[in-house]
Amino acid sequence: MRPKPHSPTKAPPILPEELIEEILVRVPASTLVKLKIVCKSWNALISNPEFTSDNVYRSRADPRLVYRSRSKCKIHFSSVQSLFKNPSALLTKDCCFEMDDDLHILGSCNGLICLGLISGPFHLGSIRLWNPCTRSASDWLKIRAIDGDMYGFGYDHVHDNYKFLECCWRYGHKIHTFGSNYSTTIVQDPPSYHPKLGIGTFVYGTLNWAAQARSNSLEWVILSFDLASENFAPLSLPDINNRDEYYDPAVGVLRDRLCVCLKENYGGWILWVMEEYGVQESWTKLLTLFSNEHVYPPIFYSFKAMYMTEKDDVLAVSSQFFKLVIIKANDVRTSQRNFVDADHQNCYVYHESLVSPSHLGLPSFHY
């Protein structure tokens, strides 16, 4: 009996390029970095700035917490989801970057972290943009800011640019625009308000500070800077009659909405969110945190809200203890708190991406 001839091996099916792109654009950036070596076409696709921008909004990567330890020379990353799964456990550090200099984290946006280099007592002398996922960083850019000045980093979605605000009372106010044509422009003087903190909170194309009126220390507003129009404007706080004016408000961000934490007279701490940015009537009470009678030692400063889960649990940072706080939406009185040795001004939620400083026209390097 004659043996049957072997049938030729079929080539594996080839997916259309459009479908491959639809699949890859949803993959976390840290995985895409490894997939660039699969083939030349994947490398070209993943390196494309347009693909990079789409991946920022469509990736399903879990967020991470980035913070500078009090030792000043270490920047840590930790899983946000693990904090909520086991709040009582010690913070698990995914990775740690050793820094040679005294650096501050000035903001995090679309996978880029803005680092500030301290060049003297209370003097911020340079900034750099850093993407830890792609291990790329820009060269240092000279600025001039001292203690009490305002600054911030964010994304202008109207003009598709990343910008850094350098608001220096002594040397003038500038906006640095990163892109194919790097530019520096002079901006108007801010209204007559004094910000509580120097670093602005980025929310949907704006930078925001809790600020006091210079003529009345009990009058508070949110000082807003629009990155597209490059103008300042004051926003009123939620209209409540029983706010304790002796406790400072704190500005945060939850689900891309402006958030503020206020203290009620003889009551708890209240988280408010602005459902529609810039619309005073859209302030909505989100939840009431624990009051001082449930906390020891007593709390005299507000909480900066940073992240909210699908179950409405909130991750915040306390400026009094320099510690992280987890507030369970369904169990406020017995909120479990996970404390970390972190600087509250150097603590952000970080979303990994492929956005590189070189995409913004900045001289940069890989390490």
From TrEMBL:
InterPro entries per the UniProt record, alphabetical: F-box-assoc_dom_typ1 (IPR006527), F-box-assoc_interact_dom (IPR017451), F-box-like_dom_sf (IPR036047), F-box_dom (IPR001810), SCF_F-box_component (IPR050796)
UniProt xrefs under PROSITE patterns: FBOX
Domain annotation F-box: ranges: 15-60
UniProt xrefs under Gene3D superfamilies: 1.20.1280.50
Pfam families: F-box, FBA_1
Protein name in the entry: F-box protein
Organism: Arachis hypogaea (Peanut)
